[in-house]
Design goal:
The complex is a heterodimer of chains A (about 450) and B (about 400). With about 450 residues, chain A is α+β, with helices and mostly antiparallel strands. Chain A is about 55% helix and about 15% strand. Chain A has three domains: about 140 residues, Acyl-CoA dehydrogenase/oxidase, N-terminal domain (Butyryl-Coa Dehydrogenase, subunit A, domain 1); about 120 residues, Butyryl-CoA Dehydrogenase, subunit A, domain 2; about 140 residues, Butyryl-CoA Dehydrogenase, subunit A, domain 3. The chains are: A alpha+beta (about 450), B alpha+beta (about 400). The structure holds flavin-adenine dinucleotide. Flavin-adenine dinucleotide (FAD) sits at the interface of chains A and B.
């Protein structure tokens, strides 16, 4: 047996390629790098650094907090974690240097290149904490994507500068969902008949906001929220984005949802009772809320997809560790062919999902179709991978202490938020219907 | 103990219907309230009360012939003559509301049934008893179960040894489900290259147990790893030896998988009922969501899968006990658990964001069914197991 093993080892391309001519040898992968490193090297140079940095941060700072964030989210204090993340520049990746921390080159390719890459790394350590760290990007994205210079100068740039140079983290959340309008605020057709409850009434110097938003990630801990509301007496076409700071009279946090997973991040109800919002807090144009919302979703869906891939990778890695350690009879699990086939299936699925996400980053303005395709494909794939990982581990798979089950619970959310995967699929067709599929 | 049942005295359809409708009433009045306060895994005190009421109703099997659950308890003494349908229907019904309680009833039933031929007989202690399927190394392989060629008894780790006045047991049993304060274990072991089943009180000297820790689902039940370090037992602790012990083990394993499939189907049906109601109420996209094809296809798929699961369970339940039924039960565990867990996940999708929140109780169903899918035979294990049994008959 050992002779067979030795000979098989000698036949591995890495070893047997010695018999190739020099140039032929150069064309052979020497297996010197890990899978992860091989993949990292395919990224643009300035992005590789971000990926390595994010992975280290995830291992050092996120993973140790993962169980606590899941088991006892009520007492999970994020302050120190946020401070450290800010110091490393993770909260300012939506803008290039010197205001933000992204590199110009990448930024000109795609504004969310860096956050999308970081998202996978954070989520591979923990889904809930990753969401907590990534949601501020979503919250502030409307300010940036509005392209409205006064809003950017007033809210985006000062915030980034104080975060980058003074370490002061001011986080934003993003609020579109209402009790009676979930999918409807993600979909053009649904939006037309949406029963919108959050309204803004024009008063002198600003607007009075009334209504509520639900399921808002980081809603309870944010310093400001970009809230979308219709103008009184009008429909979705009047949707406008308002920046509402914590502490405004009449603005309060309602119930915190108790979730199946991603528990380290709160999903909260936000209540508005005659909240005065000054004119200067209108982000972009009055009545410009709908296109802004849709474009934010186009940019954020690949990030959600990436978080799902990260979580699935987390599940896969814990199953892999398990298979390497666990003995069945006299053999380690990983030596069984059926186990190898399962693990290989997971690796394939992860590659496929990641590749689609990277494809979405090739666009300067992310098209709806590819944003939705990556989100729905990656999250469904991630769910499958997590199931496979748990199944591989049998009874051990459902113990909290082995982590896999947490990733499984976390992933399930990604198929629902940022538009259910059904709505995302419909968005793909909506995009192409009048052109490619005419 | 006399285990023979008089066919004339077997309960008729009406008796069965009566019990089933009592279980439905009980579920509505005692079980469902345990979930009204929004606790993700139910109110433990109310669940405990509901379970006590099930004992009184005679739904939980207790192998003392004078007890309420002796005849018509789940996996009760009449199962041999009546077939498993009845037990499966009850488990299915309970699981629509709470899989933890259904699984508890099921575990108590299969463990108790393994004692029916035990000479020493039952006592009050057996109100809470568990059956330990797995050694620390995992579930027993098909080859061990049927002594096929190449079966390695070494993989069966728990060993018994005769000593003066009784037996000594050594080994580890993992992932043992039971009730809080479980009083005793049924322990399969290897005794001189033969099968043996022992009755082991939890307070036996040398027996240690530790909680398996926090887990995804079925959280009402206790889950323990048990260490048998030179546990000394009296002569009468031997429930059965040799072929008889093996037959009991095979029967218990078969019933375990059949019951798990019935519970999974119940969980799926419970989630479908909840989703069916929700789609009538929720309004999105200008209409009630039941009118969207996206929703309809999720529901229609779910109906088909659950129907199919029902047919497969029925087929397996009709088979004679033994190797064929065991293989069928393994298939059920593999296929029904997988399909039904997909159903539950799809029903969560129907609820959108609300489905992910604990108060809607879909997420509990998803957690519970996931644990059932992995417990006592993961899909990978079952695949191999089915192949090994099949290969034997090729
Ligand atoms: C934990 C969590 C965090 C979240 N974070 C945020 C946040 O930070 N900010 C924010 O604004 N929102 C947030 N959301 C909201 C999220 O985006 C919505 O939950 C999601 O879009 C689905 O909406 P819904 O929950 O109302 O489901 P519904 O819209 O009620 O959907 C129910 C079902 O109906 C289907 N359906 C609905 N309409 C149609 C249609 N027209 N055609 C076909 N099928 C349809 C859906 O696919 C789904 O299966 C969060 C949600 C969760 C659960």
């Amino acid at each position: 047996m050992s002779e067979i093993n030795d000979r098989a080892e000698a036949l591995r391309l890495k070893n047997s390629s010695r018999n190739l001519p020099r140039i032929g040898r150069l064309l052979v992968d020497r297996e010197a790098d890990s899978l992860w490193e091989l993949d990292t090297k395919t990224l643009p140079r300035s992005c590789r650094k971000w990926r390595r940095k994010a992975r280290k941060f995830a291992e050092d700072e996120i993973r140790p907090l993962a169980l606590q964030g899941d088991i006892d989210p009520g007492h999970f204090d994020h302050t120190e974690l946020f401070r450290k993340a800010a110091k490393k520049g993770f909260f300012t990746t939506l803008f290039p240097r010197p205001i933000g921390s992204a590199s110009w080159r990448l930024y000109l390719r795609n504004a969310v290149y860096v956050p999308v890459i970081i998202a996978e790394e954070f989520a591979a350590a923990d889904g809930g904490i990753a969401l907590k760290l990534m949601a501020p990007n979503l919250g502030i994205a409307p300010v940036l994507l509005s392209g409205h210079l006064p809003s950017i100068l007033r809210y985006f740039i000062p915030n980034y500068l104080s975060c980058r140079f003074r370490g002061k983290v001011k986080t934003f959340s993003f609020a579109i969902t209402e009790p009676e309008a979930g999918s409807d605020v993600e979909d053009n057709e649904g939006a037309v008949t949406a029963r919108l409850g959050t309204k803004a009434r024009k008063v002198r110097g600003g607007y009075l906001l009334n209504g509520s938003k639900i399921f808002i990630s980081n809603g309870a801990i944010s310093d400001a929220t970009t809230v979308f509301a219709k103008l009184e007496g009008e429909g979705i076409e009047s949707w406008t984005c308002f920046l509402v700071e914590k502490g405004r009279v009449g603005f309060r946090v309602g119930r915190h949802e108790r979730k199946m997973g991603q528990r380290a991040s709160d999903a909260s109800e936000l209540i508005f009772e005659n909240v005065f919002v000054p004119d200067k807090n209108v982000i972009g144009k009055v009545r410009g809320g709908w296109p802004l919302n849709k474009n934010v979703l186009n940019f954020s869906r690949p990030a959600v997809a990436s978080m799902a891939v990260g979580q699935a990778r987390g599940a896969f890695e814990s199953a892999l560790q398990f298979a390497k350690k666990k003995y069945i009879g006299r053999k380690r699990m990983i030596e069984f062919q059926e186990v190898q086939l399962e693990l290989a299936g997971m690796v394939q699925e992860l590659w496929a999902a990641r590749s689609l996400i990277r494809q979405s980053l090739q666009h300067f303005a992310i098209p709806q179709s590819i944003a939705s395709a990556s989100k729905s494909f990656a999250t469904d794939t991630a769910w499958r991978v997590a199931n496979r990982a748990m199944e591989l581990m049998g009874d051990e798979g459902y113990l909290h202490s082995n982590h896999t089950e947490r990733f499984w619970r976390d992933i399930r959310l990604t198929q629902i938020y940022e538009g259910t995967n059904q709505l995302n699929r419909l968005a793909i067709i909506e995009h192409h219907r009048y052109k490619d599929f005419k | 103990m006399n285990t023979s049942t008089n066919k004339d005295k077997l309960p008729g359809k009406e008796d069965v219907q009566f019990i089933l409708s009592s279980v439905r009433d009980w579920s509505e009045h005692m079980l469902q309230p345990a979930f009204r306060n929004g606790l993700p895994d139910g109110d433990r005190a109310l669940l405990k009360k509901a379970i006590e009421a099930l004992y009184d109703l005679g739904v939980i099997f207790h192998p003392d012939p004078s007890s309420a659950g002796y005849e018509l308890g789940v996996w009760g003494a009449y199962t041999g003559a009546m077939g498993p349908h009845y037990s499966l229907r009850i488990l299915n019904e309970i699981a629509k509301t709470c899989a933890s309680v259904a699984f508890l009833v099921h575990q108590q039933g299969i463990a108790s049934a393994s004692l029916l031929s035990w000479e020493k007989g039952a006592d009050e202690e057996l109100r809470r008893i568990s059956f330990a399927f797995q050694d620390a190394g995992g579930m027993p392989a098909a080859r061990i179960l049927f002594d096929q060629e190449g079966a390695s008894w070494e993989a069966f780790e728990t060993r018994a040894q005769r000593i003066a006045g009784g037996y000594e047991l050594r080994g580890r049993k993992n992932f043992v489900y039971g009730q809080k304060e479980s009083r005793a274990l049924v322990v399969p072991a290897r005794l001189e290259e033969q099968w043996a089943l022992f009755f082991v009180p939890m307070n036996a000297e040398g027996l240690g147990s530790r909680d398996a820790g926090r887990r995804t689902g079925l959280r009402y039940l206790q889950l323990e790893h048990v260490e048998l370090g030179k546990v000394r037992l009296k002569q009468d602790a031997l429930i059965a030896g040799g072929e008889a012990a093996r037959a009991i083990f095979v029967r218990t394993l078969t019933r375990n998988w059949l019951g798990m499939a019935a519970i999974a189907k119940g969980i799926a049906e419970g989630s479908m009922e909840a989703a069916g109601q929700y789609v009538q109420e929720r309004y999105q996209g200008g209409t009630r969501i039941k009118n969207h094809a996206a929703i309809r296809s999720l529901l229609s798929n779910a109906y088909s899968k659950v129907e199919m699961a029902g047919d497969l369970i029925e087929r397996a339940a009709q088979m004679h006990s033994g190797k064929d039924q065991l293989r069928e039960a393994a298939r059920l565990k593999l296929i029904v658990l997988d399909e039904c867990s997909r159903v539950v996940s799809d029903m969560m999708q129907v609820f959108g964001g609300y489905g992910y929140m604990q108060e809607f109780r879909i997420e509990k169903r998803l957690r519970d069914i996931q644990v059932l899918k992995l417990n006592a035979g993961s899909p990978l294990y079952l695949n191999k197991f089915i192949y090994d049994l099949k290969e034997d008959s090729l």
